Amino acid sequence: MSQRYYIVGNWKMNGMRAALSEARAIDRAAQRLPKVEVALAPPVTLIAAMRESLNGIGVGAQNCHHAEKGAHTGDLAASMLREGGADFVIVGHSERRADHNETNEMVKAKAEAAQGVDMGVILCVGESEAERDSGEAEEIVARQLAASLPDNAQRLSVAYEPIWAIGTGRVPQTGDVAKMHRRLREVLVEKYGDEEGAEVRILYGGSVKGENAAELLAVPEVGGALVGGASLTADGFVPIVVAAS
Ligand code: PEP
């Protein structure tokens, strides 16, 4: 695997137009660090504006509907997001799985819908604190991933995000991250074969900051980071991009 690290900011439900200045500052910094692939997933309302004003980084969405069109009030099809300027979609984030009862089957269908219009996909998986404490986290997350994976690996990345680490300032031991990423790699190889399964980047997500990014990125099989809170400002996000460069 000779890919660049992939560092993606998930702005969640944060960011008005005033925040575009932060995105522009992140974009300028990323252009000076071409060894890293950088992207932001802002709220839908900022996708077009980011697409127009940023040159060096990818812009994506945080969710899509699995259907191409139809009677789904308030939802957006992957093709609409693409036309609006997004070139990838995050699917299966734990907040959507929890807040919108998204199942593995729905996550798989969303990933395939995005691939169907040639968008990248970042598919999120991760265990709860109780699942971690049970000692079964690797097997639980491996099953979640296997059931959520799209039928092909086209433009696919996976993000391992322990739910208990999201927004809490807590991060797993690097040894636990290594074990999980190794297990998830096995699932990918089993599904897509040696070559394609090895190409899928597995990002780590959960309280990544400038201070811990280098250590987490150095873990074997960690191909980048999915970053929430620290991605909202250039001051928070650029040090993570620098750590990946
Ligand atoms: C996330 O929700 O994807 C995330 C990783 O959040 P944070 O970096 O704030 O923990």
Automatic annotation (TrEMBL):
Q: Where does substrate bind?
A: N10, W11, K12, G167, S207, G228, G229
The pathway entry for this protein reads as: Carbohydrate metabolism; erythritol degradation; Carbohydrate degradation; glycolysis; D-glyceraldehyde 3-phosphate from glycerone phosphate: step 1/1; Carbohydrate biosynthesis; gluconeogenesis
Task: Report whether Cytoplasm shows up as a keyword of the record.
Answer: yes
Instruction: State how it assembles.
Output: Homodimer.
- Top enzyme class, one word, equals isomerase
The organism is: Croceicoccus naphthovorans
Q: Name one GO biological process term.
A: glycolytic process
The record's keywords, sorted A to Z, are: Cytoplasm, Gluconeogenesis, Glycolysis, Isomerase
Name the residues annotated as catalytic in the UniProt entry: H93, E161
| Keyword Transmembrane helix tagged | no
Give the EC number(s) listed in the UniProt record: 5.3.1.1
Q: Which GO terms describe its molecular function?
A: triose-phosphate isomerase activity
Where, subcellularly, is it found? Cytoplasm
Give me the reactions it catalyses: L-erythrulose 1-phosphate = D-erythrulose 4-phosphate; D-glyceraldehyde 3-phosphate = dihydroxyacetone phosphate
| Recorded family membership | Belongs to the triosephosphate isomerase family.
What is the recorded name of this protein? Triosephosphate isomerase
A Gene Ontology term for the protein's cellular component: cytosol
Matching Pfam families: TIM
Superkingdom of the organism of origin: Bacteria
Q: What does this protein do?
A: Involved in the gluconeogenesis. Catalyzes stereospecifically the conversion of dihydroxyacetone phosphate (DHAP) to D-glyceraldehyde-3-phosphate (G3P).
